[in-house]
Each structure stands twice: as C-alpha cells, then as structure tokens.
Amino acid sequence: MRVRHDAQRLTDLLEAVGLFCGPVPQLSVGAPPAPRVPYPVESALRDADPAVRARVLDPLGRDREPPRPGRPDPLLLPDLTGAARPGAGPTPLAPEARQVDETTCGAAVLVMLRLAGDPAAALALARDPRGAGPAFAALQRATQLRTRRVWPRRLGTPPWGAARAARYGPWRYTHRVVGSREPSAGPRAVLRAAVDAASAGIPVPLYTGGDLGHGATTAVPRHVVLLTAVRQTVVGPTATLYEPSSGALHAVPVDALRGAGGAPQEQTSRRRALGGWPHVVWAVLPSEERQEGPAWRA
Q1: How far apart are CA 190 and CA 186, in angstroms?
Q2: How many Å from the N-terminal Cα to the C-terminal Cα in the chain?
Q3: Where is this region: Disordered (predicted)?
Q4: Which residues contact 90 (CB under 8 A, 6 or more apart)?
Q5: Would you say residue 125 has pLDDT above 60?
Q6: Which of 56, 108, 147, 289 is the most buried (most CB within 10 A)?
Q7: 224: enclosing H helix or E strand
Q8: In terms of pTM, does the model score above 0.70?
Q9: Domain limits at 161?
Q10: Domain total in the chain
Q11: Residue 240 neighbours by CB under 8 Å, 6+ apart
C-alpha cells in the first residue's frame, strides 16, 4: 500500500531506512504482575482514607472501573499531607496528575509508570511535605533532566531517553517506531506488542504526532501518553490511556489506536486521548524482566 506524501510521518522515513525498527521484544507474561506492598507501606496506610490508600497502591487507577469512551476521568495523585488544593467540604481535593509544562509530558508519564510499579515511591510522593502536586512537578523536572542529556529541553523527552529511564518494577524497556504501514500482527507489529503488554498488566508509553499534511513540525513525535490497561468492555477490547496534559484517563477502542478513521465522535475521542494528535508514532516497549528493584509477585 502506498502512502500519500502529505500523509507521511517522520517515523515512516525512519522505518524505510531501517532506523529504530526491527522485531519487537517477545515477552512471556502469565498472570498480570503486581508489586508486593512492603510492610512499611501497609503500616503507613493502615488508617489512611480509603480513596488515598487506593491512589497510593494503584496510582494509575487500574483497579477501578475504566472510563467510558469520550468521557475521561481525572487521575488524582496520592496525597497524605493535607496540602492538596482547597475544595468544597472539609477534605481537600487531591491534585490531578498533570504535566508541569508543555515539555514534560514524557517525564510525567515516566514518573507515573514508576509509581505504579513501586508502592514505596508512591507513598513517598503522598507524604512529601510540599504536597503531591509540587512533589510531582519536581519529579518531572528531575526525570526530564536525566532523560534528555544533550537533547534540547524544548523538544521534551526523546524516545531513546524514555526507554533508558523507564521502569515498571522489574521491567526494563526499549523503543520502536510505529509506521503508518505497520502490520496488525507478526514480529514487527509494534502497536500489537504494546496492546499485548498492557493486556498482561505492563503499562506502555506511547508517543503521538501528526503527518506532513499539516507541516513538517507535526510529522515528528509531539506528545507522550501512557497505555495503562486493555480490558474487554461492552464495545469490545478497550484501551485506557493516561494523558498528562489533561491529567486524566481516557478510553479508546483498541482498533481505533491504529488509524485515523472512524466516526467524527470517535476521531475526537481518540485525539483527546492522544493529547490532540491523530497517530501513535513511537512506542516504548517492555523488553526484559530483571531481578532487581521492588519485590514483585506474579
């Protein structure tokens, strides 16, 4: 299938010359993995509000009901300090998990990925005396600095930097481009590998962008979201995505992740879930499990 010149992406060109592509990692994952909750974390949460406890132990909200397509749910940070933003009633509202500026979408995703696989790190954020919002912002800035090295700050976190820094418990990551002509199955099906990993309980950072039809600057990776889960719903297999500019969880049919077609309402929902962009152009995939870091159980 030929791709119109104005519909090409930078990742199509990279794929054509064999850069950042190749067979995807083959994972062997049985039951969805989950981190063990260390005793100090359990002890600290013994008298905590149930909602706050849930946000510490499940920072990505995967144990709750998934959002409905087109109706995103806010993703709130765990906060045990009482320093959250004031709200109606006696209990302050927890801050949303938003990126701190227009360049830290990748850093926000990497921080939430780490918190989801490390209850002790999530508890540390919740107990930070600055409050969860400022602490989350500081973690984003530190993560961005660590992942971009000589990369210009205005361009955010590059995929290779994200892959080097990405941690979900014992899992380490690599990266692959997602071309517009990618197969739906097989050893080079990057999006299929991302969906399979999320279905098995391992979140996957995804880079989004546009194509040359809207200018050269839109054909490169422009934003990062986190594929947190894939579940069966009444509309079929549905992906849940953490979108850091809105600080919310979005639901998208799995088939809609692949293309820009569909009804206008579906296109709008997909763009919102992808941070305003029509395509997934790069994926940071789990590549290997190492016996280090937080203790885990299968």
Answers
A1: 9
A2: 42
A3: 57-99
A4: none
A5: yes
A6: 108
A7: strand 221-233
A8: yes
A9: 5-297
A10: 1
A11: 62, 66, 67, 227, 228, 229, 230, 231, 249, 250, 251
